[in-house]
Q: What sequence folds into this?
């Protein structure tokens, strides 16, 4: 039984990493209706930028901030320079998917071309260990948990307490109506992309810290689980994404603890598909009307 | 005619023209090596390095290429092969999967001018591509540890690296020596890593040990905490392992966080700077020194053969990324030996044509009958030119081919000093005879 | 040519054939709006089936490989079974995923399915030998009939065999895509709700094409594995599907010859061609550059030439009598880009298409309505009450969250009559339309069409019972021509089923000739003849509205449900549309019109239903309604 409890505790850490990425992804998807398949490679790129800075002597957590900034700028530019022009030409939904896939491929393999198929590690010490229940956490992991919580709280405050947040929610709900109400939806969309990129950067660094050593395929493998968490909570619903991350993280770790660990991913994916079949809008999606369903 | 139709016709013409050009070019290529009986020319000849240069095992390609370049460098310095002053190495990427490897092998043997020998194939494509190379009658030295080659009937196939199950048995023997009666098996679930496991388990159990848990780990997950906890719950005294550096670092750092470290026994797949650095940082360099050993094919990093190899490696270093990592690398050295043996066989046979020289391969490594022991190509060539028979003993030690063209070798157990990754402290060796005995006894 | 070169060429050709089959099948699915990003799994399923049914029992080879079955079945049985396996896997997967999810999500879900499949095969080593994969798979007939054939001759025989398979697959794919079924599938790609409203079973069709594509994908895997003799998970990662997607985008979606060119250029030309490049740079650089190039190809082609090298052919249907009647091939001519040669269609060769096809019996007392002033309409009230109710809505309710959008609505549409549905914005009119047409399920209440309950039924079922609706926002099939838009609506087309498309070409071509003639008649009537071969996406707003109405008529409706037909239309065109509607009314068609243009309602409708805030606040002839204070309040107060 204690193994089970331990797994749940571990699941919370995995969920922390997932949550940051899932919220970033879903915020942008809600505001823009584009499924950004380049999200995973962007995570890797930001993790690598942090590594470069870290190797040059910068403290890891400062490097994380740098990575977040890079992610924000890069993603905003990616949208402006590539996605928007295609959109303006009337590129259809399906073709936009291919555009994001193409952008993602170029980015991921550019990383391999520049840095090679090697493995990178941050200069970090694990620090003191904390024992909670029967599980042991290092300072790094606690830091990750703290970062995740801080990020979630910030997003929540942004969405509910600021004008920008309200504007974002309005744009996500009904872009035309928001524009007619005087909201500068173009700027809101730009900011949504930048915010998504910043969260993507944080998620990438945190993931790299957690896995300890990483290579250019870091994001590619993880991004599908992020998608799973985001879709589970209802695409476009930030709180849903947080809940989805928690569910996926905890359930997969618990399942791994109870059964054979190699099924961890399969179980996470199976949960996703099951939820999608029962509630295509996601678990928390009373109001996310149009997305997802055929009818 | 509107623009759409014009484009169509133009495109069709272009495609057809391109296809014709391609077909003609290919038809004009001379294909594989010189025909039997033709007199030797002076054109450059090529050794093909048929290995993964991309995909999950992308590290193998450069490793084998380093071995090839090192050998070819010495061959060229000694005057080349017969009348061919220039010998080259050419890479052929099998892309780490059999579906891509098949056309790659076909292309290699079909369109490479003066291909005289092949280094490869590896495990990920071996069973599909070795027959192709054999059919083209090109001598190959493979580094695939797959069991299917233990009793191969392919005439042109040679192997001087040990099969996977031997590596597993060596690890079992080592664990027995150290008195570990309970051990966990933690291996990544992809191709190369699963090859060692069955023999390891069988051999270890035969020797009286207990495998407390056999984990086939999904690679590159973000966390293995549950797996680590499960493993620890079975209370092993040691951990047998092979995983890629990223997965290993995650796994062992999570182990170190929750529990005192347990001795780690890694396969040859864990012996490489990427792995040592990643895991070393994960568990701490001092712990690497104390807790880790690797079991890999034996190489003798001293002596005449090795010093020639090392000198040559320095000379070709500019063509290789981080050449220092191959100073004590058994697979690079096996390739070096392989190419040298092929070169000596050609010299002995007075032909670069594999249909002629293939039969001489075992002859240049056969001991006894007054054969002169040589440790490098230059010496071997001199002796052969004097009409003597030779026994080449290279960096991987003596080579003795059994009836299936296999020369299983010895193993070494080494630790790692993170401050000097190019110098591996040797702990002990395990002989081929010991491994063979265990294999027979355990019914493998 | 040296032997080795022969082997290489033969291998390249077999790979090309395999990629071709896969691309054609995948493209067929894409062109139906099914983003099957798990396509490679079907190829793998076929490959594994071929492998485990051709291999002997696993105790052979000293048990180096562990796998299921091992029945050593002779050629071609394993390949046939492979196709069945592909179809069998596609059926439940397709039904589960395609039933509920729209395109973005089902594309993503299929990627997840692909990952699950790879992971399961790797974990369950006893199924297909796990990550190591299967090898030493014997080639077909190599141990028996063709045992004494020289290997290079065998390779060429296999190339010929692959060629035959390609021709057969092309036949199947071509039959499907050039039939009315193909048109239906393309309409699904463009606009699923519109297709459903014309009676197309959306999910059933998508699942059907998913299964057919799955079987063909499996066949491609079987053909490949039978030749190369080995197969492993590293050879069917989900990224492989995107290589096929790149081939299709570059070659041309929706054009089978374009797909062939794409398959030659990308999987074969690009990946094979780069083998001949000299090695350069650090390890992994060439591979990285290759994949970057693929990504770049995606972007470049989608920007500069989104239609691909060979664009989808424009289908042209000449009007009857304009083309010389040499053979039945001329009835449907495939052309590229040229405008149709038109003779005036009144050459007399057209079959009797001028009489409208409204069912007899409901056309009774309709002849005088169109030109009667309001006075005689009022006098008509009595006969309206006596007429048979074609559609009756009773106590209809539907809420969203806390809002009751439709609150206890009841009204009737008698046969042969035109009823108006008006009310201020947010009154719930569109919701009522959606409920009647089946796009939404009511919370409670009944909707009866010709006495049969239709509430809660699927839109295509309701459409097939004779209720055809138009949409508020343009819902044309943009990538189909106007003529094709009209043809999709024809009910009961023989070529619209799989068996009809594959086996009954003669019969559906015959039927289609009649439909084409009828369509030309409509086009003439609505003065849209010059636009017949124009893509509907290129039309102006007003023209699209006309297409929508014509299309609805082609469906031979018994009740036409018009959702704001005049919205966004110029006054001149509005007049035309109204005139057409009046003619239809005169011919006895029953209609329910939602409109804001009260003048139109006034002129066309015998009776009007007024809604506000979800409720019916008034019903009756326009004259009466006009005087109701409640109605006035609702409009002004709203």
A:
């Amino acid at each position: 039984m204690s193994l089970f409890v331990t797994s749940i505790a571990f699941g919370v850490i995995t969920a922390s990493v997932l949550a940051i990425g899932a919220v970033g992804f879903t915020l942008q998807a809600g505001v823009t209706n584009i499924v950004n398949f380049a999200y995973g490679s962007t995570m890797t790129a930001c993790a690598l930028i942090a590594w470069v800075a870290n190797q040059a002597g910068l403290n890891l957590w400062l490097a994380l901030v740098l990575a977040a900034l890079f992610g924000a700028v890069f993603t905003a530019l990616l949208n402006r320079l590539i996605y928007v022009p295609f959109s303006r030409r009337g590129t259809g939904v399906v073709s936009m998917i291919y555009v994001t896939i193409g952008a993602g491929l170029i980015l991921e393999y550019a990383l391999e071309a520049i840095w090679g198929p090697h493995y990178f590690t941050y200069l970090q010490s694990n620090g003191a260990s904390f024992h909670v229940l029967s599980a042991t956490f290092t300072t790094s992991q606690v830091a990750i948990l703290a970062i995740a919580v801080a990020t979630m709280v910030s997003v929540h405050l942004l969405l509910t307490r600021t004008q920008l947040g309200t504007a974002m929610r309005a744009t996500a709900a009904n872009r035309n109506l928001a524009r007619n109400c005087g909201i500068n939806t173009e700027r809101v969309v730009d900011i949504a992309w930048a915010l998504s990129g910043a969260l993507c950067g944080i998620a990438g660094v945190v993931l790299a810290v957690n896995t300890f050593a990483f290579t250019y395929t870091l994001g590619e493998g993880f991004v599908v689980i992020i998608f799973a968490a985001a879709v589970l909570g209802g695409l476009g619903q930030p709180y849903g994404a947080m809940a989805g991350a928690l569910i996926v993280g905890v359930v997969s770790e618990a399942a791994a603890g109870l059964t054979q660990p190699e099924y961890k991913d399969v179980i996470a994916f199976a949960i996703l598909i099951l939820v999608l079949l029962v509630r295509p809008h996601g678990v928390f999606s009373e109001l996310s009307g149009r997305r997802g369903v055929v009818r | 005619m509107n623009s759409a139709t014009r484009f169509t016709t133009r495109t069709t013409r272009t495609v057809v023209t391109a296809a014709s050009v391609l077909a003609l070019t290919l038809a004009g290529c001379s294909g594989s090596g010189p025909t039997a009986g033709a007199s030797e020319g002076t054109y450059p000849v090529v050794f093909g390095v048929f290995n993964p240069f991309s995909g999950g095992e992308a590290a193998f390609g450069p490793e084998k290429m380093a071995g090839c370049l090192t050998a070819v460098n010495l061959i060229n310095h000694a005057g080349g092969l017969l009348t061919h002053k220039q010998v080259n190495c050419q890479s052929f990427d099998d892309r780490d999967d059999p579906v891509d490897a098949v056309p790659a092998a076909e292309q290699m043997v079909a369109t490479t001018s003066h291909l005289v020998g092949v280094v490869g194939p590896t495990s990920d494509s071996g069973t599909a591509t070795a027959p192709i190379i054999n059919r083209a009658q090109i001598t190959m030295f493979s580094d695939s540890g797959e069991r299917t080659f233990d009793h191969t009937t392919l005439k042109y196939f040679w192997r001087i690296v040990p099969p996977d199950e031997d590596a597993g048995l060596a690890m079992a023997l080592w664990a027995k020596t150290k008195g570990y009666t309970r051990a966990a098996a933690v291996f990544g679930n992809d191709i190369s890593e699963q090859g060692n496991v069955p023999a390891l388990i069988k051999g270890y159990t035969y020797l009286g040990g207990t495998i407390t848990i056999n984990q086939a780990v999904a690679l590159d997950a973000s966390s293995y905490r549950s797996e680590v906890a499960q493993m620890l719950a079975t209370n092993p005294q040691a951990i047998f392992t092979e995983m890629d550096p990223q997965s290993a670092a995650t796994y062992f750092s999570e182990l170190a966080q929750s529990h005192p470290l347990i001795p780690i026994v890694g396969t040859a797949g864990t012996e490489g700077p990427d792995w040592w650095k990643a895991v070393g940082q994960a568990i701490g360099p001092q712990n690497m020194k104390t807790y880790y050993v690797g079991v890999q094919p034996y190489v003798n990093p001293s002596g005449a053969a090795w010093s020639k190899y090392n000198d040559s490696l320095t000379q070709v270093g500019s063509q290789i990324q981080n050449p220092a990592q191959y100073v004590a690398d058994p697979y690079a050295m096996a390739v070096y030996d392989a190419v040298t043996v092929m070169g000596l066989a050609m010299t002995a046979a007075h032909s670069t044509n594999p249909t002629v020289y293939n039969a001489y391969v075992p002859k240049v490594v056969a001991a006894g009958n007054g054969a002169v022991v040589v440790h490098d190509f230059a010496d071997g060539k001199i002796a052969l030119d004097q009409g003597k028979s030779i026994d080449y003993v290279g960096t991987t030690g003596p080579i003795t081919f059994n009836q299936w063209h296999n020369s299983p070798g010895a193993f070494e157990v080494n630790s790692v000093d993170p401050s000097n990754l190019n110098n591996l402290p040797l702990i002990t060796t395990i002989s081929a005879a010991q491994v063979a005995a265990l294999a027979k006894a355990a019914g493998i | 040519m040296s032997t080795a070169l022969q082997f290489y060429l033969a291998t390249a050709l077999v790979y090309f054939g395999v990629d071709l089959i896969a691309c054609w099948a995948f493209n067929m699915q894409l062109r139906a709006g099914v983003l099957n990003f798990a396509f490679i799994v079907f190829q793998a399923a076929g490959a594994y089936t071929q492998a485990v049914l051709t291999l002997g029992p696993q105790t052979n080879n000293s048990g180096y490989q562990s796998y299921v079955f091992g029945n050593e079945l002779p050629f071609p049985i394993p390949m046939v079974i492979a196709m069945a396996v592909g179809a069998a896997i596609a059926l439940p997967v397709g039904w589960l995923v395609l039933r509920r999810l729209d395109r973005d999500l089902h594309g993503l879900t299929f990627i997840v399915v692909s990952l699950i499949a790879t992971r399961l095969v790797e974990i369950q080593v006893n199924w297909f030998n796990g990550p190591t994969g299967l090898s030493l798979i014997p080639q077909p007939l190599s141990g028996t009939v063709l045992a004494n054939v020289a290997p290079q001759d065998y390779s060429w025989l296999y190339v010929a065999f692959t060629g035959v398979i390609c021709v057969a697959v092309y036949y199947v794919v071509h039959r499907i895509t050039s039939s009315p079924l193909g048109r239906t599938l393309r309409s699904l790609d463009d606009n699923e709700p519109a297709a459903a409203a014309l009676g197309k079973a959306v999910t059933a069709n998508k699942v059907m094409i998913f299964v057919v594509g799955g079987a063909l994908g499996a066949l491609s895997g079987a053909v490949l594995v039978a030749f190369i003799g080995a197969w492993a998970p590293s050879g069917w990662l989900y990224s492989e599907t995107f290589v096929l997607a790149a081939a299709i985008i570059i070659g041309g979606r929706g054009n089978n010859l374009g797909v062939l060119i794409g398959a030659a250029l990308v999987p074969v030309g690009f990946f094979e061609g780069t083998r001949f490049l000299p090695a350069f740079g650090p390890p992994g650089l060439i591979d990285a550059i290759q994949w970057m190039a693929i990504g770049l190809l995606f972007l470049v082609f989608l920007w500069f030439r989104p239609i691909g090298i060979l664009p989808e052919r424009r289908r042209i249907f000449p009007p009857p009598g304009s083309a010389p009647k040499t053979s039945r091939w001329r009835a449907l001519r495939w052309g590229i880009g040229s405008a149709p040669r038109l003779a005036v269609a009144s050459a007399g060769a057209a079959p009797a298409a001028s009489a409208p096809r409204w069912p007899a019996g409901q056309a009774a007392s309709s002849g005088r309505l169109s030109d009667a002033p309001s006075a005689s309409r009022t006098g008509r009230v009595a006969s309206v009450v006596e007429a048979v109710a074609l559609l009756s809505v009773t106590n209809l309710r539907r809420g969203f969250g806390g809002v009751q959008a439709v609150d206890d609505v009841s009204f009737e549409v008698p046969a042969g009559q035109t009823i108006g549905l008006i009310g201020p914005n947010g009154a719930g009119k569109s919701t009522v339309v959606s409920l009647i047409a089946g796009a939404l399920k009511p919370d409670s209440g009944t909707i009866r069409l010709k006495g049969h309950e239709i509430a809660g039924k699927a839109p295509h079922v309701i459409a097939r019972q004779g209720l055809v609706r138009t949409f508020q926002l343009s819902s044309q099939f943009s990538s189909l021509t106007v003529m094709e838009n009209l043809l999709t609506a024809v009910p009961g087309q023989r070529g619209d089923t799989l068996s009809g498309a594959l086996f009954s070409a003669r019969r559906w071509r015959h039927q289609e000739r009649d439909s084409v003639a009828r369509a030309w008649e409509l086009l003439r009537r609505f003065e849209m003849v010059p636009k017949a071969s124009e893509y509907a996406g290129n039309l102006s707003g007003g023209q699209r509205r006309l297409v929508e109405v014509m299309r609805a008529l082609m469906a031979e409706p018994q009740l036409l449900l018009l959702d704001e037909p005049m919205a966004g239309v110029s006054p001149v065109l509005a007049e035309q549309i109204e005139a057409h509607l009046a003619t239809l009314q005169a011919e006895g068609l029953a209609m329910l019109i939602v409109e804001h243009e009260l003048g139109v309602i006034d002129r066309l409708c015998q009776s009007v239903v007024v809604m506000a805030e979800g409720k019916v606040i008034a019903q009756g002839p326009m004259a009466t309604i006009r005087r109701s204070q409640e109605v006035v309040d609702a409009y002004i107060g709203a």
Q: What stands out?
A: Confidence is low (pLDDT under 50) at residues 1-37 of chain B. The interface with chain A takes residues 54, 58-59, 189, 215-218, 220-227, 229-230, 233, 245-246, 248-250, 253, 256-259, 274, 277-278, 281-282, 321 of chain B (CB under 8 Å). Chain B has 16 helices and 14 strands.
